[in-house]
Give the backbone structure.
Amino acid sequence: MKKKEGKLLKLMSAFFYDTEEEPETINLRESMVAVGIPGLLSGYHGSFSQTKGFKPVKEIADLEGKRYTIIDFTLHVNEYDEQLPDPTGMMLNLKQMTKKQISPIYTEISLFNPLLVEKIKAHSGIDKALIDSPRLLSDLLPALGRYKDAVFMHTIKPNASPTLAIVSISQDQIPDLVVSASCRFNKNCKVVW
């Protein structure tokens, strides 16, 4: 079966630093959204989340006494297709997936750790579990079997902020899925990945 062409997702994250001057080079892997998720690269998705995501980012910078800059980056993703044998780079919108679509993911998780599935179901699904505990996604990755290299769209709820849509990928996927990255406020700053 031929793979679909895919699409580009434009995302935004923040890079925090301690110096007066913005660094000349920033590693995309060190950027984050308001809720840092270990082992993952995450970015705000959609104009609402990208706009409202500034407030919690600024609060983190103020709280930690740091400065920040905004990193815009683009991922190449494939549409969800349950027929594809390899879901690498496939977009899994955890909020919009049907029970039929999410069932194989629960099966993979239950093979690894049945208690994780019960924990997720207690929250009424993966997306709601990730709103309550975004770092759960890094715990879930090893349990996701063939889905561990997918692209996960989910929501977070930072303090004093509305629910925001983010997209997360495993750090191992960065070389394959990131198409471009740049510093929004300083075009002379080089963003590497």
